[in-house]
Amino acid sequence: MLVSCQKISPVKRLVTELKKHHVIPRLLACKPTEVITVLYPCDIDIKPGVTIVINEVLRRPIIRYKADPERFYTLMMVDLDVPPDNYSEWLIWMVGNIPGCDVALGQTIAAYDNRRAMEGENIHRIVFLAFQQYLELDFDEVLIREDEDGRRCNFNCHKFARKYALGNPIAANFYLVEWVFRWTPTFLSLEME
User: Fold this and answer.
1) What's the pLDDT tens digit per position in 57-85?
2) Beta strands at 62-64 and 72-79: parallel, antiparallel or unpaired
């Protein structure tokens, strides 16, 4: 008799992990219907809820999600666990007006910067959200540069989504980042505070 294990759907696994780590309902009211594929240098493939050491995710990842090439999307990447409160996020990266899933062709609203100082707990939840836009948007946001922290703190995904009528995210993913530094060749070339 042959017994096979039933495969768990990637979206079902994502939702289970989002609930386990309280991303649902803290950040997401509705369940996403797709998983964002996140690939960091050195073949670090982000699976929902995986724990990663901070120096492995300092460079911008490759992002993929199921998308209509004729539509525009907004991608947000936030840290849920930077103080001072539980009602805002730390904005790590944001790109709008992404044609399909080609993030490189989108409009950068906040440059990728995952090099903030460790605050609060040792483990932080880092969440990726993809929103389908109704049309190409005219964002009135001033670009947040890589080294600019002032406008990254106290960011609110819900307020931003309401301001631009983005609705609920269509796709998500997340990982847990740990502030324990391990020596790697790439770590030598990066300056950390």
Assistant:
1) 989 999 999 999 999 999 999 999 886 66
2) unpaired
* Torsion sign (Cα): 7, 9, 15, 17: positive
Phi, psi (degrees; rounded to nearest 5) at 63? -120, 135
Q: Are 95 and 112 in contact (CB under 8 A)?
A: no
Place 148 in a pLDDT band, splitting at 50, 70 and 90.
confident
Using DSSP, state whether 147 is helix, strand or coil: coil
| Amino acid residing at 14 | L
Dist CA 27 CA 135 (whole Å):
24
85: tokens are: 């409160």
Q: Which residue has the tokens 């840290």?
A: 79
pTM: predicted TM-score of the whole model, two decimal places: 0.87
The partner residues of 5 in beta bridges, in order of sequence, read none
Q: How many whole angstroms separate alpha carbon 111 and alpha carbon 186?
A: 20
Q: Indicate if the pLDDT at residue 24 is higher than 80.
A: yes
The β-bridge relationship of strands 123-132 and 171-178 is: antiparallel
DSSP 8-state class, residue 110: E
- pLDDT one-digit tens code per residue, 104-134: 999 999 999 987 766 656 789 999 999 999 9
Alpha-carbon gap, residue 21 to 96, rounded angstroms: 27
